[in-house]
Amino acid sequence: MTEIKICGITNKEDAFFASDCGADALGFIFYPHSPRYISPEKARAIIACLPPEVVKVGVFVNHDVKEVERIRQYCGLDLIQLHGDEAPDYCRRFVSSLLIKAISPQNDADLDALGLYEVRAVLVDARDKGRYGGTGLTSDWDIAVKVKKSHFLILSGGLKEENIVEAIARVSPQALDINSGIESTLGKKDHVKLRNIIEIIRNQGEGICDRKIFRREYKYAKNLT
User: Fold this and answer.
1) How many CB atoms neighbour CB 121 within 10 A?
2) Model-level pTM?
3) What share of the chain is helix, strand, coil (3-state, %, to 5)?
4) Is position 7 annotated as part of the catalytic site?
5) Hey, what CATH topology would domain 3-221 get?
6) Domain residue limits, the chain
7) Can you say whether the dihedral through the CA atoms of 89, 67, 154, 108 is positive or negative?
8) Which of 14, 24, 78, 125 is catalytic?
């Protein structure tokens, strides 16, 4: 079954509702320039109250390696999502099974560098004028299909009720990352849209791969460096 990550969580109400609706993972953005930024202190308080089966993902953009590790341990994060311009050498400073690398490929040439990234999964998103995700723009689904040939794929970028069925049919990603398409305002989820989109995804049936990106055993590897 296609996995679901609800990203841009900024408050307990949205976190608990997404969890209750069956989200596999929740994303907490620690990039200060994001309108969906959450402080490590607030994220830690929310995470401490969440069920253990929900995977907690920290989203970072060009952070110092030591700061990423500090926040990861402080908040109790299960996975790290690097959503900036992080190079392969930077990524190798972390345990590969804990890493999701976000990319915004423009053409086939941009895909060549993917072989240098040793990561758990690749997230394909859309970027606009220097904004690192959360733009509401649709990513390139044709390129996303090509990414899936070499990496486990999380599809992101402008996903909402109106296009989610087509996205699954065309791309068949292992997981979906949903953020702006289910918001009432920046950083606040519309609970009707959130519930509806999860129901739509679940009604699409089983996915194409038995291996899951958001697997619980990686929670217990989070103290590795």
Assistant:
1) 21
2) 0.90
3) 35, 20, 45
4) yes
5) TIM Barrel (3.20.20)
6) 3-221
7) negative
8) 125
